[in-house]
Amino acid sequence: MGHQHSIRVYYEDTDAGGIVYYANYLKFFERARTEWLRNLGTEQDELLEHSIGFVVKRVEMDNHAPARFNQLLCIQSEIVELKRASLVFKQTIISPSDTRLVSAIIKVACVNLSSMKPQAIPANILEEFKRVV
User: Fold this and answer.
1) How do the domains of the chain map onto residue ranges?
2) Catalytic-role residue among 13, 15, 45, 98
3) How many helices (H) and strands (E) does the chain have?
4) Given 3.40.1050.10, 3.40.50.2300, 3.10.129.10, 3.20.20.140, which CATH number is that of 3-132?
5) Active site residue 15
6) Are 48 and 113 spatial neighbours (Cβ–Cβ below 8 Å)?
7) Mean pLDDT score across all residues of the chain
8) Can you tell me the distance from the alpha carbon of 5 to that of 105, in angstroms, rounded to the nearest whole number?
């Protein structure tokens, strides 16, 4: 079971030709993962209070077709691998006409922000992730 999040392309997201600048897709993916975590009952500011963060370790991204100014995009996310201190997301950005625009595999690690060392995903979050895998 995955998650879907909609996002509108704003002028600030595009280049001079009205096409989304490639690096902004990473921001869209991040927002979708944050909203999914929120939907599962966890706010990242609560994690920060305990010096816990999720950091991107690896990204593999393919651009299939351009997104354009003012489009309403759908970001589909699913967890394809779940470990004690990391997880891998498969994320896809879909156009209003159901065209696959961008796809990515993103590995995220849970870290202690004080030491920047890996740490186990908190048990309550891990259980929520297991429920949706």
Assistant:
1) 3-132
2) 15
3) 3, 6
4) 3.10.129.10
5) yes
6) yes
7) 96
8) 17
The residue-averaged pLDDT of 85-89 equals 98
CA 45/CA 106 separation, integer angstroms: 22
Whole-Å CA distances, 36 to 19, 21, 45:
26, 24, 14
| Closest C-alpha to 101, from 69, 59, 77, 68 | 68
Contacts of 87 (CB under 8 A, 6+ apart): 79, 81, 107, 108, 121, 129
Q: How many CA atoms lie within 13 A of 43 on its CB side?
A: 3
The vertex-113 CA angle with 107 and 115, nearest 5°, equals: 105
- Look at residue 1 and tell me whether its pLDDT is greater than 80: no
**Average pLDDT of span 26-40:** 96
pLDDT digits (tens, 9 = 90+) for 94-133: 999 999 999 999 999 999 999 999 999 999 999 999 998 8
